[in-house]
């Protein structure tokens, strides 16, 4: 088939010289409406198109096993959607410019989960993390680490409520041991002072 699309309207199957293929609706020579695009490398997209760009709702499946269902804008993942990663993890929530951004829920294949804020594909803002070992943290996150104010509950019954930096107790906090004993005071990189 020819790859010339000038003036093409309606539903067509088009095979490109690069071995990519589009089966869907055209408007004035551009992909516009519902359509399926297959790349030569095995990646596939089925969904809405507007002016030759993925726009609206769509399903993208990459050759590496990752899959995304959700909103697209101007050929990028933008809005609400669900990503299934090739390592077994899943994310559902807000996206901006192909990155997790806004509110979202991430579940890793080991059973650990995070609910909360994301910015530029990392945990940033307020959030709650539940690890598969029974530990739970709720509070501030910066650069994927507990940083700011937060509370950690450990599976053995102990807990810490206070200041954090890079995933460590740092600043003022209250630690309660599993036996009920409490320590109120300062911490420096996970050590009482």
UniProtKB/TrEMBL annotation:
<protein>
    <recommendedName>
        <fullName>Phosphatidylinositol-4-phosphate 5-kinase</fullName>
    </recommendedName>
</protein>
<dbReference type="GO" id="GO:0005829">
    <property type="term" value="C:cytosol"/>
</dbReference>
<keyword id="KW-0677">Repeat</keyword>
<dbReference type="Pfam" id="PF02493">
    <property type="entry name" value="MORN"/>
</dbReference>
<dbReference type="InterPro" id="IPR003409">
    <property type="entry name" value="MORN"/>
</dbReference>
